[in-house]
């Protein structure tokens, strides 16, 4: 298990190094370009607004897929343990609610019998 974690860490470090290299290259290329004019900025904003509903849905599902790849799913044994503990707690809470409900019902029945 430790080897798997070590591989994950090294992969994360490699991706981080790639991102930094890419940002450095992009930083150099943007500093070499002249400042954008206002008309080109407004065209870019209008372009983003005109992407529309379909593009936003595609972006959403792309982000969902990326997040689902990051999820650490439980193993079979962990899933069994979680399921058993959940069922046990449901039974315990159900029993407690039943006992309280029965007690309240008995008290109300006794009070009603006193009144006649």
Question: Strand-and-helix sequence, N→C?
Answer: HHHH
Provide the structure class: mainly alpha
Note the main sheet: none
Q: What gyration radius follows from the Cα positions, in whole Å?
A: 31 Å
Description:
With 116 residues, this protein is mainly α. It contains four helices and no strands. It is elongated, with a radius of gyration of 31 Å. It has helices at 2-32, 38-50, 52-70, 76-115. The longest helix is centred in the last third of the chain and has 40 residues, at 76-115.
Quick take:
With 116 residues, this protein is mostly helical. It is built from 4 helices and no strands.
List the defining traits of the structure above.
mainly alpha; elongated; 116 residues
What order do the helices and strands come in, and which of them pair?
Blueprint: H1 2-32, H2 38-50, H3 52-70, H4 76-115
